[in-house]
Amino acid sequence: MGLLTNKVALITGAGGGIGRGVARRFAREGAAVVIAEIDEKSGAEVALELESLGGRSLFVRTDVMEKASVLAAVDAAVRHFGGLDILINNAFVPTPNVRFEDKTDEMLEQTLTSTIKASWWAMQAAMPHMRNRGGGKIVNFYSIDTEIGAWLHADYNTAKAGILGLTRSAAAEWGRFNITVNAIAPTAMGATFHKLAAENPGFAERAAAMRPLGRCGDPEDDIGPVVVFLSSNLSRYVTGEAIHVDGGLHLPGYNSRPADVPVRET
């Protein structure tokens, strides 16, 4: 018996990176996993991976920029598996890394929609189904970038701050339904990490050295277990929390100023 046996989980953005790692870990713990992913190829591939691990899975093409698509994913989970116990809001649509003064309204709207609005829509849609099952678990994705004011991520930092507010608001209000709502701030070797490592020799080594634990996180083996904890009965008395899952990176933080930006400009 796994920690998530007989539970139904929906994970947005599970077609790669941290989402895929969490999905694989959930399958190993016995959950039926709905892969809500926009990329049909990667989403279908992860569904097959979970089946090969002995899990139950369903791929639902989902565009988190569209409310109807998010609601349809929740409906598909309930129709296919009979209910919904766990919601993991991981997906977002990135914008170009440019300075705050160069960020556009369109970039801000894209980021706010794919993070705050998508999570809001999914949570409101999932709540009645969780309530009908006597409770549920929601895990949202926060970020260390918000805490350090990471350069070139002004829209992302703003949105993730909103995610923390959303998490705590839902935790306060939905505790009466036995629904816990928590957030994690993960860093791991996902798609972006591997891209940067391929383009910048020594990047992986430098990234590992920044963390007190001296290594970079694995999506399945380092991030996945913490999400499992927050999604299982082990965390039944934990709600409204934001947990860093970053090998201790939040302790020293990091300098994100681009090398070509002077200290003072006129």
Automatic annotation (TrEMBL):
GO BP term, example:
fatty acid elongation
**One example GO MF annotation:** oxidoreductase activity, acting on the CH-OH group of donors, NAD or NADP as acceptor
The name under which this protein is listed is Short-chain dehydrogenase
Q: Which PANTHER family does the protein's record reference? A: 3-OXOACYL-[ACYL-CARRIER-PROTEIN] REDUCTASE, CHLOROPLASTIC, SHORT-CHAIN DEHYDROGENASES/REDUCTASES FAMILY MEMBER
Q: Which Gene3D superfamilies match?
A: NAD(P)-binding Rossmann-like Domain
InterPro entries listed in its UniProt record: NAD(P)-bd_dom_sf (IPR036291), Sc_DH/Rdtase_CS (IPR020904), SDR_fam (IPR002347)
Family that this chain belongs to: Belongs to the short-chain dehydrogenases/reductases (SDR) family.
